[in-house]
Amino acid sequence: MNISDPAIWPPIRNSKVIDHIISNCQVQTHIDNYPKNDTGRHFSNYHFTKKLANNETIQRRWLIYSVSKDRVYCFCCWLFDSKSTFRLVSKGYNNWKHLSEMLKIHENSTFHMKFYLSWIDTELRLKTGKTIDCPE
Question: TTF-type domain: which residues (predicted)?
Answer without folding.
Answer: 48-131
